[in-house]
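Example: Clr5 domain-containing protein.
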Amino acid sequence: MSRIRNPTWENDENLKADIQKYVLQNLTRKEVLDFLGRDYPQYAWSLPTLSRRMAYFEIKYVDYETDLKVVEMAVKEEISGPGQLLGYRSMHRKLREHHQLAVPRGLVYDVMTKVDPEGLESRGKVGQKKRHRGPTGTFTSLGPNHTYSGDGHDKLMDFMNNTFPLAVYGLQDVFSGYILYLKLWPSNSDPKLIARWYLEYLYESRGNCS
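Written out as structure tokens, the predicted fold is:
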């Protein structure tokens, strides 16, 4: 009686190709996991497992070691053909999905600026110097605790907000520039969460707020 061997994902070229395809389509890891769980139920799946298998296949969301000349050739090919009207965001998506180039979007912008600066500017006024705001585009603060400015920072979260999911949100006093608080959390885009932080600050510092 012959034994039935368990399937090994390491030698599954179809699995590797599908993971690469989904990554180049900019799907999130959770979305990729849904497709793989449906199409490859013979393998166990979880987010950590997906990350390990991506590392094994050397599949990256962003490959910073891509040859610049290869990117330039792909951009020139698109500009001279069906992609001649694409802005740099659309070109970035085109390079990922049709040329299998997992390059950073900023690199695509730089290459298009070098290869076709006039066309890039005409398609979206990209590259033009921003006009300085006049008096109507500014605001002033009459003193401490008169005006607050809040903003989030999610660059720690890396590509697709899954690699290292920690976001920062802070509140600053406009008059003094003093940072009133900084919050580190898996999200900084939930308005209920941001409102709760603000209300907590008002409660804790109610003696200092005007």
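Helices lie at 13-24, 29-39, 47-57, 68-79, 88-99, 105-115, 117-124, 191-204.
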